[in-house]
Amino acid sequence: MKWKTRVTELLGIKYPIIQGGLAYLAYADLAAAVSNAGGLGQITAMSLANEEKLRQEIHKVRTLTDKPFGVNFAIGQHGRAFEHMVQVAIDERVPVISVTGGNPKGVLDMVDSYPIKKLVLVAARRQAQKAEELGADAVMVVGQEGGGHIGRNDVGTFVLTPQVVDHISIPVIASGGIGDGKGMMAALSLGAEGIEMGTRFIATKECVDAHPVYKKALLDADENSTEVIKRTLGTPARALKNTWTAQILELESQLADFDSLKPFIGGPANKAYIHDGNDLKGFGWAGQVAARIHDIPTVSELFSTMIGEAEVIRKSWS
User: pLDDT, tens digit, for every residue of 1-31?
Assistant: First the structure.
């Protein structure tokens, strides 16, 4: 079956499947594997130390695939400058960029005059409308089921996706709670023209920086194995439950300020768990879809399974 949508045409990919930015995990091996499988793989720019590291990852991706790929800019990291990293993407003529975690205007303005496709992650209808006004080529709509940073209003993917579809003209990509062919078909039936997955790609062989402890936790998870932290800071985000997130929530219940929470929610604590497997010193982002993850395939095997599931559903509808 053909899987042609405005998203596949826009990005030059075979299947309407996009890999999320995945802080500290989305590097060349994973990005190339996703692109080679027919989706859009992405590098996480703001998890890298400097411009040269980003340039190296872009060059490495191009040694591993000749397919389109993207660079993700998570710009909501407490004022960290992003312009120098965006300039690398421009200089290296990357085909796609995505913007998450903040006001996308600065990034979109920088790349406006270049032939770079622009994706923006949103968590509300108004954000999607604004992204379209600012020049986004498509929006990725994340519902409250998603892993990592989500919207403040606890609106689920099943309601948010068609709400956004009905109010903008550019393509919509659904994100949050999607990890298999069933989720993909559900998203397409809601009017989305593609999906973004984050958590599911962590549990793949090519996500080489994710520690086995992290991957096993995803396999062992059920629908109650995640919780939302950072609500009191106005930046809610979903993570796997563990003793570390329990400490975070206890501090939040005491109305701790950002400076008090920073050692618990920052990059070092995140990496302590996802890279080193230290369950007592850190945490890992994960969406509720972890309950649907039961194996650690290659990315190619994951795509084959997903598309097979989706094709069975498509045939049953005819």
Answer: 789 999 999 999 999 999 999 999 999 999 9
Q: Which of 49, 81, 74 is nearest to 148 (CA)?
A: 74
User: Using CA atoms, how far apart are residues 281 and 283, in angstroms rounded to an integer?
Assistant: 7
Instruction: Of 265, 221, 252, 222, give the one whose Cα is nearest residue 273.
Output: 265
Written as six digits, the tokens of 131 are 């992204």
The model's pTM? 0.97
Q: What is the DSSP string of 274-285?
A: HTT--TTT---B
**pLDDT digits over 182-193, tens only?**
999 999 999 999
Q: What is the CA radius of gyration of the chain?
A: 18
Q: Which residues pair with 74 in a beta bridge?
A: 100
Q: How far, in whole angstroms, is CA 301 from its chain's centroid?
A: 20
Count CB neighbours of 31 within 10 A.
32
Residue with token string 């997955």:
197
Show the tokens assigned to 279: 């369950």
Burial status of residue 241 (CB atoms within 10 A of its CB: 0-12, 13-18, 19 or more): middle
Name the β-bridge partners of 196: 18, 175
Q: What is the Cα–Cα distance from 172 to 294, expressed in whole angstroms?
A: 28
Query: Rounded to whole angstroms, how far apart are CA atoms 154 and 63?
Result: 41
Q: From the CB of residue 75, how many other CB atoms can be counted at a distance below 10 Å?
A: 22
Cα 247 off chain centre by: 26
Spatial contact of 118 and 137, defined as CB atoms under 8 Å apart: yes
DSSP, res 40: B
Nearest to 239 by CA among 176, 196, 288: 288
Q: What is the dihedral of CA 158, 164, 166, 170, to 10 degrees?
A: -130
